[in-house]
Design goal:
elongated; single chain; about 50% helix; about 210 residues; Rossmann fold; 4-stranded parallel sheet; 8 helices; alpha/beta; 2 domains; two-stranded antiparallel sheet
Amino acid sequence: MYETIGIIITVLLAFSFVLAALALIMSRISLYRHVWLAGFFAGVLDFFYMPLKYFFFKLSDTRILHKWMVSLKNIANLEAFKRTKKRMIIAPHCMRSMDCPASSTRTGIQCISCGKCVFTKLKDIAPKYGYDLYIVTGSSFVKYVIKEKDYDGALLIACDYELNKVMMGLKGKNIVTYGIPMLNDGCFNTKVEYEKVIETLEMLSG
């Protein structure tokens, strides 16, 4: 009996290893072209996220894992996002000016369009594409933002780690996500390619 159990466990471990490895390969390929079954492989990586994160931390760089996972999820969510009706943009406060005069509330920073950072342009362009803009001071603020209205789509701007974290968090909230990675990581003075944001807004509106 114990021998049978041991065989079953060994087979399951081997299958899990192969499945996780295949999902990683597909996620890397997703950086360059479309992959089939992107949603399935994204789910596999979510399931094995903690051991994979430890593996990348020890042998490589966890930023690579997050980048691959976000890319795969974007492909998986693209068509579903295009069908959403009530959308929001969630962006991090670290992109704002160091001397930003805006105040913070329960749902994030309230941009006053002072012109000192990219949020002035994002605040102006977001409604034209049918989005509400939220500038959050941490991923924990997202739970308050999603209660504001009956949103079904969230365009996220952040580092790959935060993108993946929020995508995983909203997975069971009936909110379709799509992520735009920032140009650099950090807690302040981070940047996003504004042209990339416009390009993404155009693509998702079609």
